[in-house]
Write a structure and sequence with these properties.
single chain, 419 residues, Rossmann fold, eight-stranded antiparallel β-sheet, 21 strands
């Protein structure tokens, strides 16, 4: 699980800003808190703010840093990494605090985004009632200091140490008691963190077996889409485009192929089949996926958040409410928060849906805001900082500007010479 994330000197985040998933003093909705060996960790976080205030920049910081960790490429995705609030002459820093199988770690790195040079990297094991323990600290000269020794590692030049440390040959026969912990942390970013943009999908690693199909269909049916069933149908030329997307999370031997507009497999007779939803109650008929509404497809692509219970996962969704009715967004979130999953799951979203600001639905420490100052720098802060009463209408208070994070809209009558 994610315990916290911080970044500094990235896009509109000039100063260090932190998102914490640790529960605050709030006492209501305790079912939305997971206690793991002394840490009270929240199930969700909702991030509000005006357009251009920095919500998506937080999402981009998590996506970029996690992709660097997964792909081990410091040059990965740095387009548009700087805005006026950033300083190219200073390093950019990303740091995560995470839980893996009851163990807790703090991992981070600093690098110069201008030339992709890694200037620092660290991993600590953290404890609820004891001092942190350093597993390693990597310096800009590529020497790595462990708990009790310091060594040069020439091969890590320009890349992250945590990724290299997975390789057995990297250690040249040297022993290190923390190699498995280093591997676990790097593996967490690959398997337990899903960072999803407004048009992306969570279906990529599904095999579309009977359980997957049932899970997807059950979720989509619950949101008044008119869908009554689903299945694979024989594909005909001219149906939805077979634009298969290459995704590294898909098993190489998978029989199911997924595109931007459809999901396909090879039928028993060798003919291509396409996954489709069945509509109507009296006269049922199948509809091509590229003919479904954007809202229906959005629910389908995000449905694993609600029905999967086979692994711990932290889902981070940018603009979750895009193309979705406010009641669907509220119902989706309520489903996630009220269901007791056997796995540890978290749901973090950026949103404009002020109807979610309801203290009977979400806790104060699950609500976050972003605000830009006059210089364009973003600050990230929690509703819990305001110490509001449990009976306060926080939606109304937010729209009235009491918590900031609101757009300053200029109307025609506010302009002296009009538009």
């Amino acid at each position: 699980m994610l315990i916290g994330f911080s970044c500094e000197n990235f896009r509109s985040f000039r100063d260090e800003q932190s998102l914490s998933m640790l529960a605050g003093p709030t006492k209501n909705l305790n079912n939305q808190v997971m206690n793991v060996k002394g840490f009270d960790i929240l199930k969700s976080a909702l991030i509000f703010g005006a357009n251009g205030a920095g919500k998506s920049n937080l999402f981009k910081a998590i996506r970029l840093s996690s992709q660097i960790i997964i792909k081990n490429r410091p040059d990965y995705g740095y387009h548009d990494a700087f805005q006026t609030a950033c300083d190219k002459s200073k390093p950019t820093t990303f740091q995560y605090e995470i839980e893996i199988n009851g163990e807790f770690f703090r991992y981070g790195f600093s690098l110069m985004l201008d030339n992709k040079e890694v200037v620092g990297e660290w991993l600590f094991e953290i404890f609820p009632d004891a001092d942190d323990r350093r597993i390693f600290y990597r310096y800009s000269d590529n020497t790595v200091e462990f708990e009790d020794e310091k060594k040069p590692f020439e091969e890590i030049n320009g890349t992250l140490f945590i990724h290299n440390a997975r390789r057995k040959d990297f250690w040249y026969g040297q022993k290190n008691k923390d190699r498995e912990k280093i591997y676990l942390v790097q593996k967490w970013f690959w398997e337990s963190l899903a960072v999803i943009g407004p048009d992306a999908s969570l279906l990529w690693d599904l095999e579309m077996n009977e359980n997957d199909i049932k899970g997807i269909t059950d979720v989509v049916k619950c949101f008044d889409t008119g869908i009554v069933g689903s299945g694979f149908c024989t594909y005909a030329l001219g149906d939805e485009p077979v634009d298969i997307v290459d995704n590294p999370r898909v098993k190489k031997d998978s029989q199911v192929k997924k595109g931007n507009k459809g999901i396909f497999r090879q039928g028993k007779d060798g003919r291509l089949e396409a996954f489709r939803f069945k509509h109507g109650a009296a006269s049922e008929f199948f509809v091509n996926l590229n003919e479904e509404s954007d809202g229906t497809l959005r629910i389908m692509k995000l449905s694993p958040i609600l029905f999967r219970d086979d692994k711990d996962c932290t889902y981070i969704i940018d603009e979750f409410d895009r193309t979705l009715h406010p009641m669907v967004v509220q119902g989706f979130l309520k489903w996630f928060l009220k269901k007791q999953y056997s796995s540890h799951k978290q749901f973090i979203m950026t949103t404009h849906n002020a109807h979610l600001l309801d203290q009977e639905l979400i806790r104060r420490d699950e609500i976050w805001f972003v605000q830009k100052d006059e210089e364009g720098a973003t600050s990230l802060y929690s509703l819990d900082d305001y110490k509001v009463r449990f009976d306060k209408d926080i939606e109304k208070a937010y729209l009235e500007g009491h918590f900031r994070g609101m757009p300053d809209v200029i109307l025609p009558e506010d302009v002296d010479d009009g538009f």
